[in-house]
Structures are given as C-alpha cells and as structure tokens.
Amino acid sequence: MHASHSETTPSKRSLHLFATLWSLRQYPSAEREWPWAKKFAAIRAAGFDGVFSPPIPAIADRGALHYLAVTSLGEKSDCTLPFAAARDLGAVAMDVQLCDYDTPLPEAVAVAKRISAAARAHGLPFAIETHRDTFTETPEATLALARAYRAETGKTLPLCLDHSHFAVVRHLRPGQLWARLREPKPLLRAAVQF
Q1: What is the set of domains in the chain, with CATH numbers?
Q2: Phi then psi dihedrals of residue 73, to 5 deg
Q3: Burial of 95 (0-12, 13-18, 19+ CB in 10 A)
Q4: Which of 39, 66, 93, 130 could serve as a FRET partner for 104 with CA atoms 20 to 30 Å apart?
Q5: How many beta carbons lie within 10 A of that of residue 116, not counting itself?
Q6: Are β-strands 126-129 and 93-98 bridged in parallel, bridged antiparallel, or unpaired?
C-alpha cells in the first residue's frame, strides 16, 4: 500500500526493489532465453520485492512478486487502456513516461490531466517519470510541467524523479547537476519513487 503524499514523510518511506523485466530480455542469450517462470524465480531469489514492466500477460504468472507498471503515453494515446490492463494484473502503481521531448507544454499538461483521470478511474496511483526523449527530459521542462499542472488543477503532479536521465542531458555540467536538481524542495519532497 502507498500512503498519500500528505501522509508520507521521508523518515517513514520504505524501500522496495523492483527488477525491470527488460533486464532479463534474451537472457542468458537470444537462443537460450529463460522462460518466464525461471525469470520470476531468479528475481525472487535475488531478493527483489517485485517486477517493473509494461502490462504484459506474463506478469500474471509472477507469483507473490509485486508489480509496478510502466507505460509511455502521448497526445494521441488512450490513457485508459494501460491503466485498465495494469489494474487487472494487480499493479501497485503506474509509472508514466510522458509525451515526446518536443511536445508543446499545453499539450503535455492536457495529457497529464487525462492520465490523472484514468488513474483515478482505475484506482491506481501514478507518477510521471523524468526520462530522456520525453517531455520531462530536462529539469526546466519538468518544472514547467509541474507548475502548469498545479496552475490548472491546484494539485501537485506526482513525479518519479529519475535523476540518472537528467545526468546525461548535455546542457548540465557535472558541477552544477545537484544544485539544479535539488530545487524546488516542495516538489522534491512530494516525489513518488514508488
């Protein structure tokens, strides 16, 4: 179970480790790829709490592993389909990679609002992940999105702050990376890292 942002403080957060299913794609080789049952057993044996994957039928066979869903949604996407599929597979939440890097801000906000509505309709928490080649590719675009979303909805946009993607953005030099990424503090405190 996830507590709401207002109920969660950094000292009360738990760390849950989810293995990405694409890390076992064609493992150990394309010719001898393990079946899903063996992959799930290896994930459990390695001590992971769950799996991180788009909603695919094989997820249903994961056993006691938790499931964190991920999807990419853009301007023309039907936001309800992945939420319905993830809910039906027992997902604990949905991580969303939002639009393309060159999507105009008003369109990205409109998609984020549709995502929020789909999440509510399916009873599934969500967060927009900061990710390369998406609208949230840079800290500046992510902040603009969060501010515009709040201006239109009065709510804080749930974000999954994957700073590894910001770290590869060309315009940030290593010496300025953390100084730029640690602000604004209220948005950082509200981050949903699942």
Answers
A1: 5-189 (3.20.20.150)
A2: -130, 135
A3: buried
A4: 93
A5: 19
A6: parallel
